[in-house]
Fold this protein.
Amino acid sequence: MTFSRRHFLTTSAAGTAVFGLGLSPAFAGTPAMPDWHLGYTSAPAGGFDPAPMRLVFGKVPKGLEGCLYRNGPAQFRYGKDDFASHWFDGDGMIQRIAVADGKAVHSGRFVQTNKRGIEQAQGKFMAPGFGTVGHPDFPVTSADDVNAANTSVIVIDGKLYALWEGGSAIALDAATLETHGVKDWRDDLAGMPFLAHPKREPDGTVWNLAINGRNVGVYRIAADGSLKSFGLLNIGKAAYIHDWAMTDRHLIILVQPWVNEAFRPPVVNGFEWRPEEGFQFLIVDKNDFSNRRWAQGPARAFYHTGAAWEDADGTIRIDAALYKEPVLGVGGGVDEIRGDWKGREARFQSDLTQIVIPPSGDARLIETGLDGDFPQVDPRRHGLPRRLTALMTGQPATRPGLSAVSVHDWETGTTDTFDFGASRMVEEFLFVPKPGKQDEADSWLIGPVLNLKTATTDICVFDAVRVSDGPVCIWRGDRAWPLGFHGTWV
Ligand SMILES: [Fe+2]
């Protein structure tokens, strides 16, 4: 394999330009816009100052204390007519909901990236991105020049990082959300991409990937934030990798037959679907990258895994939301950003699936028929055998987005769901372990729900094994914020 940091960064800069653009003005919605457009309306440039939320339903569970951080695009328009070309290109904004003594306080701040600085000064979209050609005058010398920092967040050793997928993690103050700047995990890895879906072992060790076409870098970061190692893999083709999986012993790179050899802006135009190549899985020993094997399964596309585990005989099981057609970024949310939704397309249907990879031979799929995405698992069990997967489901016919929270039990094959109905837009819900408890069942689920009746974003909490009973408590502030992608609870 010919691979060097220079090559990685050069091609990354030219091509990976990647996910980032954003849009606009006051978060009040335009009178002509449908109510759900609140989810795609720009947040105030100055962010949201800390403000208490009111408990409007239920009782706050004893022991629920911590902080929910979320990230998502929050700039969708400049002025009257300059709309973002793609939802994935909106500038990232971090929402922080601090829960203590039964009270919740919300604040939000844009990540102050290079891209945002230039575009705010110019008052228009300029950077190339996932779905954006970009302005010819926008200077691009590295992927971080166009880093939108809009996809996820992680906290390592008390330090908060905004994550994208084509560029570096960006460090922020975990309390004030002030942006500190690009994170270099090691001097010689400056500018190396850091995927938006890192995985954390129960002991706090964080693993993550750096994707550049067929070359994949692997970070191993100790719980104290120090980089323990950085290794390299070659996956043979430039498959799109947004997420991956990990057991206690292995890394699993899911190589979907959805290839983008150029990966240059607008990235979304460069994908090629090759179903004849199937879905390939590279299984790598965490302690010896030379110890690896491949498995093969039927062609599927995906954005997200839940997590993976291994049976006693070495069989690997991965839960993921799989799509029979490649739909990533199709449409780009352009209609939604303009408040002009045209209805759902059947091909956007996913299936919560367990990918079963035996110690030798091909993978098989256990399909649940559950249409949803954003699978989440108990962080105490990441990489270990478990039975529960939470995901967002429910698709109202009258508006975009999802409306329900589901928990699937792989042991019983049953699914427990609470559907808020068409007047609520549900975001990703995270497992929160109950203090002092170890079983998966001893968890809450916490997440935001955009309430279209009150024009507020509500924070809802469920008991993870009694979801259909409805939320156990709901906090509501006096404002809404745009729909986000991913978050973390600390
Ligand atoms: Fe994601």
Notes: The domain at 5-489 is CATH 2.130.10.10 (Methylamine Dehydrogenase; Chain H).
